[in-house]
Design goal:
The protein is an alpha+beta fold. The protein has 3 domains: about 5-85, Rossmann fold (3-Layer(aba) Sandwich), CATH 3.40.50; about 130-205, ATP-grasp fold, A domain (Dna Ligase, domain 1), CATH 3.30.1490.20; about 210-460, D-amino Acid Aminotransferase, Chain A, domain 1 (2-Layer Sandwich). The protein has helices spanning about 10-25, 40-45, 65-75, 90-95, 105-115, 115-125, 145-155, 180-195, 255-270, 305-310, 315-325, 330-335, 405-415, 435-440, 445, 455-460, and strands spanning about 5, 25-35, 45-50, 75-80, 100, 155-160, 170-175, 200-205, 210-215, 225-235, 240-245, 280-285, 290-300, 340-350, 350, 355-360, 360-365, 375-380, 385, 395-400, 420-425, 430. Helix 4 (about 90-95) packs antiparallel against helix 5 (about 105-115) and helix 13 packs antiparallel against helix 14. The longest helix has 20 residues, at about 255-270.
Length: about 475
Amino acid sequence: MLKKILVANRGEIACRVLRTCKRLGIATVAVYSDADASAPHVAMADEAVRIGPPPVRDSYLVIHAIVEAARATGADGIHPGYGLLSENQAFAEAVVEAGVTFIGPPPAVLHAFGDKILARDHARGAGVFPPPGTGGPVDPADVEAAQRAAESIGFPLLVKAAGGGGGIGMQIVTDPGKLSRALTACSDRGRAAFGDPRVYMERYIERPRHIEVQVLCDGRGGAVALGERECSAQRRHQKIVEETPSPAAFFQGAAGEARRKELHESALRVVTAAGYVGAGTVEFVAAESGELFFLEVNARLQVEHCVTEMCTGLDLVEHQIRIASGEPLAPEVLGHTYRGHAIEARLYAEDPAKKFAPQPGRVTALRWPDAGDDLRIETGVAEGIEVTPFYDPLLAKIVAHGPTRDEAIARLDRALAETTIELTGPAGPAATNLAFLRQILQDGDFRGGQYDTRFAEALAAGKKPG
């Protein structure tokens, strides 16, 4: 077992990883920027190292500063959390070269799945198919070739960045006359966000659902799919409510269970063929018919991993650490059982009435509901903490479990009703999405499991059909 782990992240995920390390008796090191000097994750760790000024490019994305912090404190493992450097091949390589264990997939796997075009090719090789699209990158400057490729795919289509995910740069194109502009815009965003201007095109799935499968692989032949998560409640192509199992109609009944099993097996084929090690998520997009297409692999822990933990009783961070320490998957992981239903709401400092614009400010009042076996509060903020514009405005994840989906939703709604959080910004009170989360949970279509990736934004804009 690793003896000392540096957590190369901040906020709620840093606190989450630190909590498991402490339970396992592993010494911990936090890193922080000047903006996070008084953050909860810094106080939780046994040691803390300053790595730079507030902007992430000068602190949490500075590879040599984080590796040097591990060397200086004697950490023998680095957990990257999610986001930031968690899927960065160069970071994983630097960690390994420093003689420190990277708690994540090998650099070669990060390379294979970090490039979305390569990932699509890899999935095809494993017999798991993405939506029809271009086999390689599209040159935005070659308008005629791009138009020919688009016509073969059909409109509407998606233009996507090859170098990253999270919906960054993604463009939906319904009008052939707007294709060239969409290609250029996506390429520019890809270059700015990922240092990679390459783009590709694929068919746009109408009324899509976003469904993902949690996997664990020990690198010794042990691999398991820990169920699927429904992640279709999104804004700006990013999730705000997630649940497991998926309530989609095409997963109901005997035929639905067969489709669910096929989905899990497909996810395992994709990762095991690549020599995957650690925790990861294989993402799919589903058409209304239930036809499932490969999207990508997130080669790290996901924000929404907690709902899987609530239904399996497993600590995924613990098993990440055990795998990185060279242990095989334990029998309780390989033979896990699923219990009930779990649902998570992401509480953000953002204003749904203003297209979910971030709302920086100081936390001036804070009260959480009582947590327990069936309710978790995952947070990296405390009263008096400044929510700055430098980082993602996630305040907390509130996760509820129940024997049925209806009971889990009701429990989460009660928890949100019992939550108080007030932010004071430079110009007065700042907004959160707390009330909007309750609006989602109380919506009839959501309660009926009849929602897709367009649902949340339409609800916020008052444009939901019916």
